[in-house]
Amino acid sequence: MLFSELYRVINSNNEKWFDPILDVDTKLFIDPFLLFSYSENHLNNAHSKIIEFFNEAFMLAAKSSGLPSSLSYKKLISMLTFPEVEEICLGYTSKSTGGAGGGEGFSHSMASALINSIRIGLKEINHFEEIGILEKGIGRDRISDICANIIKEELIIYTQDICSIHDIPLKEFKVKNSKFNFEFKRWETNLVSLPLNPSNNKPILLVPKSILRELPSINADGFLDWAWSNENETMRTDFNFEVKSKINKEDIMRVASTRIDLLEKYVSYVENKGSIPYDIDKDPSGIYKWYEQSQKIQQMQNLKLPIPNNLDELASLVKVLIKSFNSFIVDNSGYKLLWNETPLTPKREEASQLLFFGLIKEHCKANNVDFSREVNQGRGPVDFKFSSGYQDRVLIEVKRASSSKLKQGLQNQLPQYLDSENINIGYYVVIVQKEEEFKKISGLKEEAKKLSEKLGKFIDVFVINAIYDKPSASNIK
């Protein structure tokens, strides 16, 4: 459910705040660089606050000399503890609104990164995301959570003002890291009035659309691209790199830490070039609009699903849902939602999974059928699980035919999921977006049949034709 839907807010395109999906995280992140150029009320001093925070952290790191027993180091660890900011409904978790966060283990990694940055000659930090280029494990989710913690006080006021404009009721919550006390260098937990998220009974924080991106503007891959284009001779002679595609994160870290001057030039380049937020209206990656699209599709199809009474009926119901998705994609031009038109390119695999998830969810909600997404059991997440009681369960894995792990998904992942959860029926849904991919999938149904016989389970493959502008008869049988 959207925030605007829950609180009956008419959210026009003129609204500057991001309208979160309350029960599924959207894979967007607060980009500190976009805060660097943000000038509107509420967050106009947010970037300078982040700089001040990390300058304080730098001073503590320098005083500590890296000694864990020192008071400065202990204070630094306390400063650098950033809990998950579930209130913003952003990040990596696609079945709920809980992210990676930053507990004590991560705070030690951050402290180590700051101390190492000082040792290699980083004299000041105007963009703390530089540290993500110098240290493993500081990715976009961590960077976003760090930002959200430091500017949480501003986000609280921002949210309260929006709620006041739209007469949205508030509830009192105890909010961790609601304010950082610069005088005593410590986080405060305070009682704060915010809107309720009924999906997890936690508060909601709204953020401006204009500070959200899929990747931080300053990032390791961006640094590599810049260095390869501008310092090609250095990369080849000093670091013995011949092929850019073979350079990994450890190599990038080595370049950045060995040649801090290159890192500084790259940051200056990004500052001069500027950056733009994610285009939420066009949604080129298909990570947000799937929710509204799914509602429209469900209303158009309006399936009547019987409540299953046994495993066979549950399996039949799941097949009806897969066929419904196939019918929309193939017969109702739904394939267009899985493509970007300018330029004409397939959206990434998650766009297919989210649209499938959204449509199935809407059909199940309308028919009071239970299912969940990304079951974290065994050795990894499966895309969907349907259940009717504990015994009667069915798993679905959704893959694009272009995936490099297409056969691995069928031969290893799905059987492992079925085995770890003691489930006997699994469906492998493959989405084809290019003609040549039909060759790649030609033996999958036979492979599924052999696996079924070998494992004593039932595994079947469904192929969905999402080739652009080439509607064809259904491949579902």
Characterization of this structure:
Helices cover 43% and strands 16% of the residues. It has 477 residues and is of the alpha+beta class. The chain has two domains: 3-273, no CATH class; 290-465, no CATH class. The chain has a five-stranded mixed β-sheet, sandwiched between helices. It has a two-stranded antiparallel sheet with strand order 1-6. A two-stranded antiparallel ribbon has the order 2-3. Strand 9 and strand 10 form a beta hairpin. The protein is globular, with a radius of gyration of 25 Å. The chain starts with a helix and ends in a 12-residue tail after the last strand. Residues 94-101, 375-381 and 471-477 have low confidence and may be disordered.
Summarize the structure.
The chain is α+β, with helices and mostly antiparallel strands and 477 residues long.
The percent of residues in helical segments reads 40-55%
Binned strand content: 15-25%
The description of the largest β-sheet is:
5 strands, mixed
Low-confidence stretches: 94-101, 375-381, 471-477
Tally of alpha and pi helices: 18
List the helices and strands and how they pair.
Elements: H1 3-6, E1 29-30, H2 32-36, H3 46-64, H4 71-79, H5 104-119, H6 131-134, H7 140-150, H8 152-165, E2 171-181, E3 186-194, E4 196-197, E5 202-203, E6 212-213, H9 220-230, H10 232-237, H11 249-258, H12 260-273, H13 290-301, H14 311-331, E7 339-341, E8 344-346, H15 349-367, E9 371-377, E10 380-388, E11 392-400, H16 406-420, E12 425-432, H17 437-440, H18 444-455, E13 458-465
Parallel strand pairs: 11-12, 12-13
Antiparallel strand pairs: 1-6, 2-3, 4-5, 7-8, 9-10, 10-11
Helix pairs in contact: 3-4, 3-5, 4-5, 9-11, 11-12, 13-15, 16-18
